Amino acid sequence: MVRMESFSSKDMAMQAQKKILSHMANKSVVHMFIDDTSSEILDELYRVSKEYSGNRSEAQKVVKDLIKIAVKIGVLFRHNRFSPEELSLAQDFKKKLHQGAMTAISFYEVEFTFDKTVMSEILTGCRDLLLKLVDSHLTHKSHGRINHVFNHYSDPELLTQLYNPDGSFKPNLTKICTGLNRLLEEGTL
């Protein structure tokens, strides 16, 4: 019995892109794949993470993981790797992310409305949808990156400090919400 070899140059190219891009998640490469507004938000998220954790390398790792995941999902979309069911999950994720951005901005704009449980649950919901979306496409290591990013930013204590109206993160939150507003207005988010 002769077995056909299942080789696809398209699959190889996609794998190579994912691999190469995941190794190049630094600031100069980010600007090639991520718009200026998103980059500004990522910079503020880094600053918040660094200040909150007191650990520069941990803050870099969480943002680097976020960038790697975003780039890999972008590669999968560009190569039409998602099934109709997965594309439906992607729409659900986008809606949940949009809800999260709107909620984050609302909590920022209307003082004393912040609810750490609501924000944490939205982020956890985003994480779960994203994990379902990439389940059969990305490695266990990438799934770990998704968990790392969302578990970090959905930490109720981090969120509480971020939204403290008298806290040191107020300028960061202002810049994050300004960027989120811009992305919403442009229809990017």
From TrEMBL:
Keywords: Immunity, Innate immunity
InterPro entries, per the entry: TNFAIP8-like, TNFAIP8_sf
GO CC list: cytoplasm
Top-level taxon of the source organism: Eukaryota
A UniProt-annotated Pfam family: TNFAIP8
GO biological process terms on file: innate immune response; regulation of apoptotic process
Recorded family membership: Belongs to the TNFAIP8 family. TNFAIP8L2 subfamily.
Cited PANTHER family: TUMOR NECROSIS FACTOR ALPHA-INDUCED PROTEIN 8-LIKE PROTEIN 2 (PTHR12757:SF4), TUMOR NECROSIS FACTOR INDUCED PROTEIN (PTHR12757)
Protein name from the UniProt record: TNF alpha induced protein 8 like 2
Protein's organism: Oncorhynchus mykiss (Rainbow trout)
